[in-house]
Amino acid sequence: MITGSLVALVTPMHADGNIDWECLDRLVDFHVESGTNAIVAVGTTGESSTLDPREHVDVIRRVVERANGRIPVIAGTGGNSTHEAVSLTREAAAIGVDACLLVVPYYNKPTQEGMYRHFLTVAESVDVDQILYNVPGRTSCDMLNETVERLADVPNIVGIKDATGNVSRGEELIRMVGDRLAVYSGDDGTSMELMLCGGKGNVSVTANVAPSLMAQMCAAAISGDEAEARRINEILTPLNRKLFLEANPIPVKWALHQMGMIGPGIRLPMTTLSDEYHQDVLDALRSAGCL
Fold first, then answer.
1. For residue 165, what are the contacts with CB-CB under 8 A and spacing of at least 6?
2. Nearest of 256, 271, 186 to residue 12 by alpha carbon
3. What is the pLDDT of residues 126-149, one digit of tens each?
4. Is the Cβ–Cβ distance between 215 and 201 less than 8 Å?
């Protein structure tokens, strides 16, 4: 089981929007050296929605090759078409990822039965560990805990990223399926609370800029060291807030650029961080020792 800080890795780009492959290599090394527990490649933060299918697979391959077994790699392979999700998951499995992250189908708003059958089909079609991903704020479609429970006994469905930000609901989910699935937080602001309730880790945006602190906080929370987890989380809290002043990954890519970690590139319809938020993000980076 993968536990701890799972960074939702950005996809670095040049100013013209082309992928910066050398920078991607450096980011993988940075996370290995900083104690991040796993890399999630080409999720929401990795701009999966604006990469074409070939780029999507190529980024996954590059991350796996650079990681070279030093750190687990989880590939974002979801889609609102079950056929597309199966195809992407199959390609990622062939590359050699440790697991795949599959988002609830977005935009077309399937029923709970449709979601159940979607995830079951992908799991039965591709023999690779799979982590469900519920983020209703992005998908406009909410997979209920009862549907997750129906999927919990599928052998290669091994976890769920709960990005609802609702700790009470997450705690209920842990009670329902925690003996069968790893429940991960997908919300930096509430991740500590969920891990103290039995969550196994945090798929984190903040870990892009503060990987060591996030890894330390996750380790403390998972082990039940509440005092230490709260101490570190207090340092991370300004980042957890300010990195969502505009839609992810706008603030975190701007922050990484200020840190000299990546270039300025981001793809439309996402734009660079609005001027009015620059000082807020800089202040948060400084308060966490990132600058």
1. 137, 187, 189, 190
2. 256
3. 999 999 999 999 999 999 999 999
4. no
Alpha-carbon dihedral sign for residues 182, 187, 188, 191: negative
C-alpha–C-alpha distance, residues 175 and 172, integer Å: 5
Catalytically active residues are 133, 161
Strands 201-204 and 182-185, by their bridges, are parallel
User: Which of 197, 195, 217, 198 minimizes the C-alpha distance to 206?
Assistant: 217
Q: Is 133 helix (H, G, I), strand (E, B) or coil?
A: strand
Ordered by where they begin, the domains of the chain are: 4-224 (3.20.20.70)
Contact at 8 Å (CB) between 198 and 171?
yes
**Closest Cα partner for 87 from 122, 61, 119, 46?**
122
Contact criterion met (CB below 8 Å) for 233 and 193: no
Q: What is the dihedral of CA 257, 290, 21, 132, to 10 degrees?
A: -110
Q: State pLDDT tens for residues 189-201.
A: 999 999 999 999 9
CA dist 254 and 196 (Å) reads 31
- pTM exceeds 0.90, yes or no: yes
At 225, phi and psi to the nearest 5? -85, 80
**In whole angstroms, what is the distance from residue 180 CA to residue 92 CA?**
24
Tokens of 38: 């796993």
Question: Where are the alpha helices (H) located in the chain, listed in sequence order?
Answer: 21-34, 53-67, 82-95, 112-125, 136-139, 145-151, 167-177, 191-196, 211-223, 226-242, 250-258, 278-287
Backbone angle region of 203, left / alpha / beta, with phi > 0 → left and psi within -120 to 50 → alpha: beta
Instruction: Tell me the C-alpha to C-alpha distance, in Å, between residue 123 and each of 78, 205, 261.
Output: 12, 26, 36
